[in-house]
């Protein structure tokens, strides 16, 4: 193995990349604007929720309740008749519908504990869950304020002091930003190396390389280091400039430790990119294959939704995917300030997976060149 | 110089002031021609001079930019005229089998074309049998085109062109790269067909001047212009030359000819015993196919050794074995007396290789290419500039040193390839068809360089070619056919051994000897389906604007192709099921089995009661208790705990006294989504606990509120995310994957060139699109059934509404989504772009504006408008309505109407915007 050849071929890859404006744009965009927007546009759990109100009471209290719903959490409520309520819900036009019964205000003041019917379209689960809590709170506080001076109930004086560690305000943009970096690393590592290999095969240049004093391992390593470096530089930039400077996300742990983990992850993913490219053989097939591979990797590796809520089998299978370990590692280091003593199992796992993918890809690569 | 023939019956086509450009490149400049009818016309000139463009314009496959083209007595700008005459014209584009479908068998290809021209089954069988018999292809009826040799592909291409008895046959380089025997058979076949159908005109472009010499009338072209026209004899006479090759060079403008001299390479002198390359019984098997069959030869040092043979005869494979690119299955190859070993880097430094197509980095400049190769060959850094300088002077590259290769003409790129192959001063040079497509002047210049290298520098040159005149320049040649070397000797000796006048004749003689007698001429002059009097040559529907048969033809074509491409088929069949599985579990928002531990500083029955409430819920799993804050910090940092509780000392005592106490709860905020859910659960459980304790202490009345909020989680009472997600994921997957596959099916034809079959046959755009679409509609429907089945079984989503309504809507919906894919494909010409563009363009409105998360009614602005018309919005309503809300036809009629309305709109737009000609 000749280090100088690996270096020179890698430089050649970089030169080629610079001449591909679309790829360059994709890289720059993925590590800057995309991360910024996906962090800042993570919506609050409830936004513009569609609510309708059937006001059979027409009292002061009922209109007080109606006017308590306003943007940005809710759209201005539609006041509808009782007959419309079911059809609108069936057609999926409303997520929430409140039915305030006749004589509601009178009954409340008389202490008769009247019932408001609260319908939720539970086919929109996320909104249904968070929204029902909100709406319950809003209605309760409106009613309580209204009747505040009438009665007061005894209660136990036990408070619950709830504190969120590592992200005290539970700002979703922190997690969103880091997740978006991880996604960019995943996609670009796969696309850049895979495309570099297929382009070389389609242009016939790979044959040319092979008659020169260059080995398959050197060719593969050159692609891994050059494309890996691009992704690494991009992710470091995203972390230091975009996340720390622009998004003001505090990073608790050691940045060098995290970057070391990123390098391992990139090594594993670029090897996987080469492997997939050898399976696909041509650009369009590579694209189709990517679609089938990327989505499961991203959805099931714990970045989108917690691993704990997936079936055990899925969790176990996903242990073979680098992302799973990388996400654990980055959450540990960046948010919880974990050191190497804590995250070493993830480092180990990434190294083992990376090496395995590399050898696997190298075997396929040699066969692919024939 | 143009000959003016009488217009009218004597001409098959006239062209006047014709111009064509591709972006900045000018392909044709002001061409005027009158092509005589009933003749065999030849179009000669090197690659890239506009021959193919001219033929495409004559065939009506390309849009006319400037000037006039009249074919068969009508204006080819007129779509109605094209429609009328397209079944009288046959066009065979350049490139071996470019308009054929490689995964389809010989019969299936012919059958496809037969259907396009409206023949019924009996008619097709009859014609196909006749054509296959006439061309000797009958034994290969069921072989996939991809597995045919070059010669056979050409014959099949011709069969496809002849299936509808054309009056005007347009053949673009039909014989390039085909062995001389197949070539001769090809021309004999054409002669025979012309004899049977004397009225037929044929125009052929060719790179072989020997062939052109046999044609009736020639057009010589260069640089988008016509140099001269006339019979071969007239051209020779006018230029005062002996061969068409020479005549062509004389016809070239002064500038292009400058510096040209006829190549001659002096005979090899001196050391005859040193062997540079030796092959002994070299054999290569690919599966059960023998690509090279025990080939042996020895090449002396300094010799120019030629390999002459057709495409696919094993030339390239042999060369690859010599360079170590391929491992021989048997036998051995030696360079300088050492066996070729792929790992032997030292031998590689002594060899230079130039592969068939231009294969240098187009993203590096000429200089960067040279330097990179020099470095990879391990030349000392300080020597490199000198070497590069040498190569640049020797190969005359100075003017283009900083250009990108893709911007250079073919001839210069060829010189660059040679310079790169020579940068490290190799002793052996292996060249695989180095001059294909290069014009004669550049080609002779190239051979002059080879001559110098061999004679002056003593470089051993091993070159393959399919041009006879190049082969004659070699010291010795091997004739190759189907993996065998037929003979190895000097050109003179080979000619002498067969008493042949030309090398070509000698080659043919050897070929005939190898194959046996010239192929069994099956039943004499073929029952070539000559038109019978009183019978219409074109069956009903051939020229109509809609034909069910043509539609079916495209449907069948697409189905067959799909069945034979595993990755696409897998995506089409299993892709959505896999992604549904992933989504079903991946998007699940249910948080369960969260880890928690408590730091109980009170240790009373009340504190244990509190902890037990949490530990006993299905959301939390209790971990070993905590002993200190330090332990809590450590375990939370390691991600072991999602929640930590601290119950203060004296908790029970102080509660009993009515004092205010505070329980501490720490949540891991690393994932805010989970943290929010945890916080909700804990607060809920805390409130429950308080209420329970209050009831125990003060009785029921104490906890009654002002009012009661009767919450009904409708359609999904347990708030299971799977029930919510699955019916919404089905519409998304039925949108994305069918749309992508439909888009790819059209763009693929554009990229591979078979879209020409739409341009030059009576097929209409609507038939083309709808035929392809139906295949994907059928697949998408199967997918729909699979996904619904999964939803009901694996995910256990209850189904409450009308299944018939869901199914009918699904059929309408997949017709609409595949139509969207076709619509997008109209604008795109590369498959990879089509893939990503379709994914983005369908999914963004699908996810954001289709009421997946918020109802469309809650959107505003453009998003609202998109949401109101996008079929996905309506199908999500149907899917949720039928799965969870117990709805039927009546409730969903509006949604179904909206989905149905999208179909004619999108499909109509796609049909209108798709081009029936190349632009």
From TrEMBL, chain A:
Question: What are this entry's molecular-function GO terms?
Answer: ABC-type transporter activity
- What are the GO cellular component annotations? plasma membrane
Stretches that traverse the bilayer: 21-39, 174-198, 219-243, 255-279, 286-304, 343-362
**Stretches assigned to the ABC transmembrane type-2 domain:** 132-368
Indicate where this protein resides in the cell. Cell membrane
Q: Entry's InterPro entries?
A: ABC-2_transporter_component (IPR051449), ABC2_TM (IPR013525), ABC2_TM_bact-type (IPR047817)
**Membrane topology reported for the UniProt record:** Multi-pass membrane protein
Name the keywords, alphabetized: Cell membrane, Membrane, Transmembrane, Transmembrane helix, Transport
Q: Which family does it belong to?
A: Belongs to the ABC-2 integral membrane protein family.
Designated name of the protein: ABC transporter permease
| Species, as recorded | Thalassovita mangrovi
TrEMBL record, chain B:
CDD domains per record: ABC_DR_subfamily_A (cd03230)
* Compartments in which it is found: Membrane
Q: Per the database record, which ranges form the ABC transmembrane type-2 domain?
A: 687-917
**Chain residue ranges for the region called Disordered:** 517-539
Please give the superkingdom of this protein's source.
Answer: Bacteria
Q: Where are the transmembrane segments?
A: 722-747, 774-797, 803-827, 834-853, 895-914
Q: What is its main location?
A: membrane
A Pfam family of this chain: ABC_tran
Membrane topology per the record?
Multi-pass membrane protein
One cellular component GO annotation, for this chain's record? membrane
Domain (ABC transporter): residue spans on this chain: 13-248, 277-507
* Annotated keywords: ATP-binding, Membrane, Nucleotide-binding, Transmembrane, Transmembrane helix
Which protein are we looking at? Ribosome-associated ATPase/putative transporter RbbA
Taxonomic lineage is:
Bacteria, Pseudomonadati, Pseudomonadota, Alphaproteobacteria, Rhodobacterales
